From TrEMBL:
This is Tyrosine--tRNA ligase. GO terms for biological process: tyrosyl-tRNA aminoacylation. It comes from Microbacterium album. One of its GO terms (molecular function) is RNA binding. Residues 353-425 form the Tyrosine--tRNA ligase SYY-like C-terminal domain. InterPro entries: aa-tRNA-synth_I_CS, aa-tRNA-synth_Ic, Rossmann-like_a/b/a_fold, S4_RNA-bd_sf, SYY-like_C, Tyr-tRNA-ligase, Tyr-tRNA-ligase_bac-type, Tyr-tRNA-ligase_bac_1. Its main location: cytoplasm.
Amino acid sequence: MTSETTVAAPAIDPTFDTIWDELAWRGLVHVSTDPDALRDLLAGPPIVYYCGFDPTAPSLHLGNLVQLLTMRRIQLAGHRPLGLVGGSTGLIGDPRPTAERTLNTPETVAEWVARLRAQVERFLDFEGENAARIVNNLDWTAPLSAIDFLREIGKHFRVGTMLKKDAVAARLNSDAGISYTEFSYQILQGMDFLELYRQYGCVLQTGGSDQWGNLTSGVDLIHRVEGVSVHAFGTPLITNSDGTKFGKSEGNAIWLDAEMCSPYAMYQFWLNTDDADVIARLKVFTFLTRAEIEEYEQLVAEEPFRRAAQKRLAREVTTTVHGTEATAAAVAASEALFGAGDLTALDAGTLAAALRELPHAQVAAGSGVVQALVETGLVSSASEARRAIGQGGVSLDGQKVESDDAVVTGGLPGGVSVLRRGKKALAGLFIARG
């Protein structure tokens, strides 16, 4: 087995006959147009395929990461990816299950297009014979008049079929209903596939299974207009083994932007993966081979207390998203806070990000440790704080607090402090100066 400190290079697993077989083994195929035809297609000469990402937020998230890594796997098998950033569809947004989206301004959408484009580019290879290309659907949608859109594209869609799409049906049955704007989204996405077929010979679209209605709208449109068969497949929506929503941490999405979700927070998210979920996560989110993952599956069964699979998962994904240096800093911070590492050796930015993930408080310089223990919630009262100190169970910045009169120093990098009560209860202190 590869060392925990080594990160697997992006590669396909040669033990599978085709990339389709590997995708299926990794649990990435939930629904598809024709599994046998897709297997043959991906085993044959290079094809062009695409996946779209709408700028409905300033960053992609873990659900999008499933698509990005799926695209990379198919590219590694020799096929050519198109990463579509939806400058036009982002102005509308695909229908959510319960309520209408708030429309963002064109200026906001344009800014988010640039940000998402930069994120997509990090995951694909833009060199070689099957180099990736980034496209923006605003390029072919903006010049199209409403009349031309209705005459050339809209006439190929049947309202009855559109009403049966899951996302539309859910909204029609809700109190909110659905506007014509969001109802038309599937036509726009279908037009994207047609345009990419015409421009680049694109014959496959991938996406989440919740997008299946939108994916098949393009398949149907191309068949109707061009008389050819193209394909789509949808990856499953990933949930935790207990049925809860995946990709959330304390109610917040795990974003790929380091400013919205720090490398430390991402590392901790994966480190906290349940034993029942970790093997499935290794399959989807890493490039570890089948043999390596099966070894980790055995370790989870025989030595779950070592959490070897979780440590490997956390390191792999955080490195994939944020790079080696940021991951090393996150690992060092985790070890310093929860193990035997040196808090004073951490860089200020990583330490501050780590402390924001803990219970934390802002206190004035020179505040008493007793007060800080109460404000961070490590104790419920000043008397409990004094009792904990008297029992030798409180430390500040790694040093045991000996007296009730001890004050917060902010002696760690960046002028912060770490309070510890007992072995596992930690809190961060941000010092307000002057």
